[in-house]
Every structure is written in structure tokens, then in C-alpha cells.
Amino acid sequence: MEKEGLFSVRSLARKVKAPPSLVHRYLRNYLNYIFKPTRYVPHLLVSSQKMERTKKANELFEVLTKSKYNAYRDIITGDQSWFAYNYAPSGAWVHEGEGPPVFVDDHISYEKIMITVIWGVHGTYIIDELPEGEHFNSNYFVENILLPL
What we know:
4 helices; single chain
């Protein structure tokens, strides 16, 4: 369900049963609306963070260079990500002179799941869904990811 006044071009097109390109053209050319994102969060690194990332990248490069001779058979990697069931609006259509909209966005209360995937050159080893109410911490990682791996 969308908040009042917060519609994407696609959702508006569905509601008025028109092509999204037509809705977009009317918003821009006839109603003088523009899409403005709700936020911009720059991610600036301090010097020590840049140095640490460079050091880690060089260490990883050495590992990968050594593994190249083995066709990377000894490399296993993984990732975990949160997937939210509902997402906050990323912006809104406003008149050209208006500023960007402000939304109270509480990511913590979103209903979401965490998926962990571990894979290597021989395929996928583990796909794990964090059970509701569990915390992804070192104990969970050892018990549910490392030991089965």
C-alpha cells in the first residue's frame, strides 16, 4: 500500500491504465513535476580507513594470485544480505521549485529476512535463512555456516 501522494510512475500508470511513458511525459511536460530523491548519504572514508582497505585488498590479491595456479579450487566465498518485504519510497514527484520530500524512515522495524550464501568454483555450498527472532552473531555464524561447511 502506498502512502498518500507517493506514487511511482509505474503505479500511477497501472491506476490510470496508461503506459508509463505517457504518465512520465505528462508529469514532466504538462504538470511540471520532477522526481526528487528523499535522501543523499555520502560515504566518505577517513585516511586510516583508506589505508586499511588498501592493505586488505593487497592481501586478497596475494591469495588470489597464489590460487590462480590451482584454478581457484581452494577459494570459497560468501555473502549475506537483508531482504526487506516493504521498502520506503525513494523519492516523490514534486513541483520544480519544491525541495525534496522528508520521510521518517525506520529501517529497523521493517519486516525482513537475512540470507547467507556460500559458494566456490564447484558450486553453492550453503544457503541459509536466519530464523525469525535469531541474531546473526559469531555463535550463529559458527554453528550454522562454518560447522556445516
